[in-house]
Amino acid sequence: MLAHVRRALLAAAWLSALPALLPSAVQAQSYPERAIRLTVGFPPGSGPDVVARLVGQQLAENLKQTVVVDNRAGAGGQIAANAVAKSLPDGYSLLLAEVGSISIAPPAFSKLPYDPAKELQVLTEVVRSDFLLVVPAASPHRTVADFLNAHRGSRERVNFATFGAGTPGHFGAELLGTAGGFPVEPIHYRSTGDAVSAIAKGEVAGAFVSTALGAAQVKGGTMRALASTAAARVPQLPEVPTFIESHVRGIDVSAWFAFFVPAGTPASVAELLARQLVAAVQADDVKRKLTEAGFSVTGTSPVQAQQMVRAEAERWAGIVRKTGFKGD
User: Fold this and answer.
1) At 265, phi and psi to the nearest 5?
2) Rounded to the nearest 10 degrees, how much is the dihedral formed by the CA atoms of 186, 45, 39, 263?
């Protein structure tokens, strides 16, 4: 008798759950039925924006649906990350995030309004970018040694432009200051254009900018590159040595860019998005344009992306502790 009662209760529970399960199943089969919003935490024309628009356009073609790029610049990508973390997990909110808002922000900010480990699910890493130490074109410094020798032991803070507190470029400046024995005064710019203008005009001593952004500026003569954080010289600027070649170690900053959805997004939808995003970034024309823009194209599986995010969280927690930086 008890067995019959137990089976009846289980059947009732299953039937009561069906209304909640059916919409998700139907959504997975018909997805996407409307436009997908792709949020990026940096302004139009920036490196992340270039990635978002190139991959987003190809994704739209793959899915036969509109992909709208939403630039929510500010706070080193944190505004965009928070917006998507708090969005409905229905597959229509997509985030292109980078190392700053996902791996650096949690140990650096005690009052972060979102928890990337709990509220966001990574789908794939699509590109990576190394950084360049750049100075104004009119700067007297032509090598890293020149720069360090000029500021070594200085009591005055050396101004560095950054694209937000707690971003890789900010930490590059702090690590260089530690290596050179001088204090750093980070000047955080919300706009890429404002930061580039400050460097070009000599309003700051230098900056760490992504290769994707810096290569064009260096070639255009608005700034000079002294060294690259890459393991080998970058093809876009073969004349620029690496920090290792310049005998300066510990400046290990680079940026990865990955796509995320809100945690709880239906598994079938997340899997479809992951497959189509990898296909988009690996498309010949997209891959060529991203490479020309200074990015290293990856396109990893969800499992590989999850492993990368976990490893980066640990690595950057160590760097944050080493510099003693606290964003709040």
Assistant:
1) -60, 135
2) -60
My answer on whether 100 and 186 are in the same domain is: no
- For residue range 84-143, list pLDDT tens digits in order: 999 999 999 999 999 999 999 999 999 999 999 999 999 999 999 999 999 999 999 999
Beta strands, E only, the chain: 36-40, 67-71, 93-98, 120-136, 158-162, 184-188, 206-210, 223-228, 254-262, 296-297
Domain shared by 121 and 266, yes or no: yes
Any domain includes 64: yes
Q: Are 215 and 234 in contact (CB under 8 A)?
A: yes
User: What does DSSP say about strands 67-71 and 36-40: parallel, antiparallel, or unpaired?
Assistant: parallel
Q: Where do we find the tokens 């203008």?
A: 197
Question: pLDDT tens digits, residue range 226-265?
Answer: 999 999 998 889 999 999 999 999 898 989 999 999 999 9
Q: Which of 109, 102, 98 is nearest to 42 (CA)?
A: 98
Cα–Cα distance, 39 to 81 (Å, whole number): 8
Helix, strand, or coil (residue 144):
helix
Query: Which domain range does residue 200 map to?
Result: 130-228
Claim to verify: residue 122 and residue 139 sit in the same structural domain: no
Residues in CB range of 180: below 8 A, 6 or more apart: 147, 148, 151, 152
CA-to-CA distance for 280 and 287, rounded, in angstroms? Answer: 9
Q: How many domains does the chain have?
A: 2
Amino acid (one-letter) located at 285 = D
According to DSSP, the β-strands at 206-210 and 158-162 are parallel
* Residue 254, CA distances (Å) to 98, 188, 265 in order: 10, 18, 29
